[in-house]
Amino acid sequence: PFEDTIARPDVSLEEAIENIDIGGVTLIRAAAKNHARVTLVCDPGDYPAVLGELKAGGVSPEKRHDLAIKGFAHTTHYDSAITRYLSDPTPAACHEEEFSLSLYPVSKLRYGENPHQEAALYSYAPNTGPLGGQVLQGKALSYNNLLDLDAAWRAAVSYQRPTIVIVKHLSPCGIASADTLAQAFPLALASDPISAFGGVIATNQPFDAETARALGELFVECIAAPGFSAEALQVLASRKNLRLVSMPDTSVEPVFELRSVNQGILRQSVDLGDPAGTEWRSVTQRAPTAAEMDALRFAWKACQHVKSNAIVFAQGEATVGIGGGQPNRVDCVRIAALRAGSKSEGAVMASDAFFPFPDSVEEAAKAGITAIVAPGGSVRDGESIAAAEAHNIAMLFTGVRHFRH
């Protein structure tokens, strides 16, 4: 079990090498090569189909051919994992040398972003469900559902306390943490109840019946959670089209991301938050209060999951206004203020990157923001700091940027 072995943080190179299989790989290749006379079954998921053909009189040449291809794909994946590890045991490392990737089909999708586009879902490992989870009820997941669920899941599991994340069109519209999911849900919904209609939800705790009832009449496309209680499933069963995805744990895997560009692939490590050793520093005469500091930390984590030029207004452990994905930052502040309304008074603000001009701080002051956290690093930082000072806004710089393009 090479990949299981190297997944352990304490594994040694010697132990990893001892878990490089020889005989099994050889047998799979030999059987696949001779598929004209040999049926290769390297995936237990194929047992029922093969058994059915055997009972019907014998495995067909077409089935043996397909199973042979699956065998070669399996050994390719296995050897690729070994190559990557021996090149650099750090899973997130990006290499200049050849990078091999094996993907396993999960399902063909009805269409892509639009009905005229073809689409399919693939997984890094065989016999896994969407996002590594299991669909418990509802219609088949669409291309857009999967993107939204992935975005919501990444945001939800970045928090420790019970957290609800609502995503619409790949952008969080509400994030809240509380003592229970049922308490967090109305806070997340209140952030932008209009956008939440028809959105997807992810939680970092098992979905319980109280939270299921708290949904009320809200139309929800999908919910991803690390499990659903039996009572919650009963409550949600009446929503026939609601997709429920039970996730195996609260991780984000793998620790790198791939994104296609014209005639190529971009690879990067996943942004899991501030690197170890990051120190926030106060740049204004007034330091944040304890309550402001707690809200700033919540908002800072939330803005990491909003599209670039991200602006998040937060009160306590809940977003009250989110703006992102615009070509300029000041418009994102205005959008966040518009969505927050009167709730922006006394809220804090997080910005995923520096302020190129003091106009964003001025707009925040108009909205009633009392404290701001941002990376800093602009040649005009002094002007933004002066604007904060003029409005008695406490400002912190983190030195870390969190763009999400």
Describe the structure.
The chain is of the alpha/beta class. 36% of the residues lie in helices and 20% in strands. The chain has 14 helices and 16 strands. It has helices spanning 2-6, 13-18, 23-33, 47-55, 61-87, 143-156, 181-191, 193-196, 209-214, 230-236, 290-303, 329-340, 359-367, 381-390; strands at residues 104-109, 119-123, 134-137, 163-168, 171-177, 199-203, 220-225, 243-246, 256-261, 264-269, 281-282, 311-315, 318-323, 348-351, 371-374, 394-397. The radius of gyration is 25 Å and the shape is globular. 36% of the residues are buried. The mean pLDDT is 94.
Topology:
Blueprint: H1 2-6, H2 13-18, H3 23-33, H4 47-55, H5 61-87, E1 104-109, E2 119-123, E3 134-137, H6 143-156, E4 163-168, E5 171-177, H7 181-191, H8 193-196, E6 199-203, H9 209-214, E7 220-225, H10 230-236, E8 243-246, E9 256-261, E10 264-269, E11 281-282, H11 290-303, E12 311-315, E13 318-323, H12 329-340, E14 348-351, H13 359-367, E15 371-374, H14 381-390, E16 394-397
Parallel strand pairs: 6-7, 7-8, 14-15, 15-16
Antiparallel strand pairs: 1-2, 3-8, 4-5, 4-6, 9-10, 11-16, 12-13, 12-14
The end-to-end distance, rounded to whole angstroms, is 36 Å
Q: How many E strands?
A: 16
> Which residue ranges are poorly predicted, with pLDDT under 50 across at least 5 consecutive positions?
none
Helix content: 25-40%
Q: Please state the average pLDDT score.
A: 94
Determine the strand fraction and express it as a percent band: 15-25%
Structural class: alpha/beta
Number of helices: 14
Strand order of the largest sheet: 3-8-7-6-4-5
**Topology as H/E string?**
HHHHHEEEHEEHHEHEHEEEEHEEHEHEHE
* Morphology call: globular
User: What radius of gyration results from the CA coordinates?
Assistant: 25 Å
Biggest β-sheet strands, sense, barrel: 6 strands, mixed
